[in-house]
Design brief:
heterodimer; A: about 200 residues; mainly alpha; 2 domains; 9 helices; B: about 180 residues; 8 helices; about 65% helix; about 0% strand; globular
């Protein structure tokens, strides 16, 4: 039963080989979907291109349905999967800083790798910026530590806090995602086209 | 093909197809490794490794770097670093097969390359800082977090995009 590597069904030595293969698929999918173009990515915030929203929500819906289905079929133990711990204020403030960074820089880390790989100089500069930002964080860690470690809610999921069946949550989430696709197409038809 | 209006030259995948494949990839990643995808973690390993090489004592005394420094092992010896190398290879392959490899600065005709690069640097800086505070970026926290219904994943996603919409007005000249 999965996950395979933590349960010793695939030897640990394969870990990095798998990492490179998964990374390649990740990079290929992002680039082929247009995520190497900052102007395409920024489109979601101005209503001229919703590729970010569509790819993001489609993958979220597909992955959550797939993981819970594998769990239902007993191919995978979902409780063994790593759930990122929730540090409430760190997630909100960190997310807000990333939001400003996204609009200023036009990339997020994963997409900047894709941009850099096909020769976008702005993406390479963005990666240099990332490096500096992480360096600044580490150097200022004593100052930021209270925020970083505050409001730890543990490894909680939406199922824990909403106290509903995961299947209901996934159904509602899927409906919201489909609604957002319809809405985004409607917005796009109203907004002036941008060519890039 | 007749009567075709001005179109964007790039031909990309249908976003639902890309999203579907990405979803399958996330399932496969969790199924194999028990964890999700990531991106900013690789840069973090790079920073830790650089600082540890240049100023070892400083890195060991810093409460953040020291979390990632292990005796006799490079911080670069890390799953996310290998994954990031894969991302570069995969994106390069896709760009090469579709003829998108080109060294250039992409920017709106309304702004100069210089302005674009300054904003890219500042944006990267903020993104790097924010990703450390939130313990992950759009890939690690939002995309992979949402796949396992992590509350933090949803909050980070809403914070990134909510703030993006709020500040979009101030950056409009750069994009539209």
């Amino acid at each position: 039963m999965g996950p395979l590597i933590p349960n010793g069904l695939i030897p640990v030595e394969w870990n990095y080989v798998i990492a490179i293969l998964i990374g390649m698929a990740f990079g290929y999918i992002l680039e082929a979907s247009g995520f190497s173009s900052s102007r395409k990515l920024a489109g979601v915030f101005y209503g001229y291109d919703f590729v970010v929203l569509k790819v993001f929500f489609t993958s979220a819906v597909v992955s959550v349905i797939g993981l819970y289905y594998l769990d239902y079929l007993n191919f995978l133990d979902i409780s063994q999967l790593y759930v990122q711990p929730t540090y409430l204020w760190a997630a909100i403030i960190g997310g807000m800083i990333m939001g400003v960074g996204f609009l200023a820089g036009g990339f997020c880390p994963g997409t900047s790798f894709c941009g850099a790989a096909i020769g976008k100089i702005d993406a390479i500069v963005f990666i240099i910026g990332l490096t500096i930002g992480i360096f600044v964080f580490a150097e200022a860690f004593t100052f930021l530590e209270p925020l970083f470690n505050s409001s730890n809610l543990g490894h909680i999921t939406m199922v824990d806090i909403l106290d509903i069946s995961p299947y209901w949550f996934i159904l509602i989430f899927t409906i919201i995602a489909i609604g957002s696709f319809v809405f985004s197409d409607w917005v796009r038809s109203k907004v002036k086209k941008v060519f890039y | 093909m007749k009567g075709k209006k001005q179109k964007n030259r790039h031909v990309y995948w249908n976003p639902y197809f890309g999203g579907f494949l990405l979803g399958l990839l996330i399932i496969a990643t969790f199924y194999l490794t028990g964890r999700g995808l990531g991106a900013s973690g690789a840069i973090k390993s790079g920073v830790v490794s650089m600082v540890h090489t240049v100023a070892p004592t400083h890195a060991e005394n810093n409460a953040y770097y020291s979390k990632f420094i292990k005796e006799g092992e490079s911080p670069l010896n890390n799953w996310l670093v290998f994954e990031a190398i894969g991302v570069l290879l995969g994106a390069f392959l896709s760009g090469a097969l579709t003829g998108r490899l080109k060294l250039k600065v992409q920017h709106s005709p309304k702004i100069s390359s210089r302005r674009r690069l300054i904003f890219a640097l500042a944006g990267g800086l903020l993104f790097g800082l924010g990703a450390q505070i939130a313990r992950g970026c759009t890939s690690g926290a939002a995309l992979s977090g949402m796949a396992v219904l992590s509350v933090g994943g949803f909050i980070t996603m809403i914070a990134i995009f909510g703030t993006g919409f709020m500040v979009a007005y101030f950056f409009r000249k750069n994009w539209i």
